[in-house]
């Protein structure tokens, strides 16, 4: 057999396997971390004063064990996908110092290996003309995700940019205060030009199971932190 025929057979075989792989029913599913997998309000609130400007993610990533709670409905969802052979990835806008400590924390709770740059990715926002924009879409594209679960508008935007189906995990009411840049702003605060909506407005969307980006709403019921 001559070399060109051999090469053609190799290419055809590879194409066949690529098509076979693309056509299987294994989903690539992505999850955000903060307010999606972890209720991490308290790790951010306990960040020492001298580590706040800019946020010291080396400290944050190494203190979830002390302050963050796993959100059981999303943890169960992760287990469902994982047990059924689907691939689960985590993409956070945190930056990566001590990322291996966060990976270890997730591994111990989820009971499958979570490793930095294998199934846990750090994708900090980038500043353009003074505004901060998500970069998660780059990793979503690279991983060829099918679904992405997150709590923030930026998660929905990144998924849309990457052509991934976005699903909103409704943020727990005790956490919403620290996120004012969402479309609905801080709905717990009084109505103002910066926060034009009330919690009632937000709930109209959530009760219709669709968000302003057309995302699906995951009906999470989680009791939240015990105060
Ligand atoms: Mg989040």
What does the model show?
With 227 residues, the protein is an alpha/beta fold. It has one domain: Rossmann fold (3-Layer(aba) Sandwich). It has 9 helices and 10 strands. Strands 5-4-1-8-9-10 form a 6-stranded parallel beta sheet, with helices on both faces. Helix 7 crosses helix 8. It is globular. The N and C termini lie far apart (75 Å). The site of magnesium ion has 7 residues, from loops.
Q: Which sequence of strands runs across the widest sheet?
A: 5-4-1-8-9-10
Q: What shape does the CA trace take? A: globular
First and last CA, distance: 75 Å
Listing every helix as H and every strand as E from the N terminus to the C terminus, the arrangement reads HEEHHHEHEHEEEHEHEHE
Radius of gyration: 20 Å
How confident overall, as mean pLDDT?
A: 87
Helix percent reads: 25-40%
Can you tell me the CATH architecture?
3-Layer(aba) Sandwich
Low-confidence segments, given as residue ranges, are none
User: Which kinds of small molecule does this entry bind, naming each only once?
Assistant: magnesium ion
Q: Sketch the major β-sheet.
A: 6 strands, parallel
Oligomer: single chain
Q: Examine the coordinates and then state which fold CATH places here, giving the name of the CATH topology.
A: Rossmann fold
Number of DSSP E strands: 10
**Total helical segments:** 9
CATH superfamily: HAD superfamily/HAD-like
β-strand amount: 15-25%
Q: Which CATH top level class fits?
A: Alpha Beta
- State the secondary-structure class: alpha/beta
Tally of discrete structural domains: 1
């Amino acid at each position: 057999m001559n070399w060109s025929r051999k090469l053609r057979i190799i290419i055809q075989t590879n194409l066949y396997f690529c098509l076979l792989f693309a056509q299987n029913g294994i989903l690539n599913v992505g999850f955000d971390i903060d307010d999606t997998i972890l209720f991490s309000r308290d790790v951010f609130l306990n960040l020492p004063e001298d580590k706040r400007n800019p946020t010291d993610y080396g400290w944050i990533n190494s203190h979830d064990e002390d302050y963050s709670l796993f959100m059981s409905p999303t943890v169960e969802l992760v287990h469902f996908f994982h047990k059924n052979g689907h691939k689960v990835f985590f993409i956070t806008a945190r930056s990566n110092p001590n990322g291996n400590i966060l990976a270890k924390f997730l591994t111990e709770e989820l009971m499958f290996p979570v490793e930095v740059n294998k199934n846990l990715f750090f994708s900090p926002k980038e500043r353009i003309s003074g505004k901060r924009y998500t970069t998660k879409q780059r990793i979503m594209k690279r991983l060829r995700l099918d679904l992405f679960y997150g709590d923030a508008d930026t998660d929905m935007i990144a998924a849309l940019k990457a052509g991934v189906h976005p699903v909103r995990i409704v943020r727990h009411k005790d956490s919403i205060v620290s996120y004012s840049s969402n479309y609905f702003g801080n709905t717990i605060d009084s109505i103002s030009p910066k926060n034009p909506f009330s919690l009632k407005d937000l709930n109209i969307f959530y009760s219709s199971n669709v968000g302003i980006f057309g995302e699906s709403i995951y009906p999470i019921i989680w009791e939240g932190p015990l105060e």
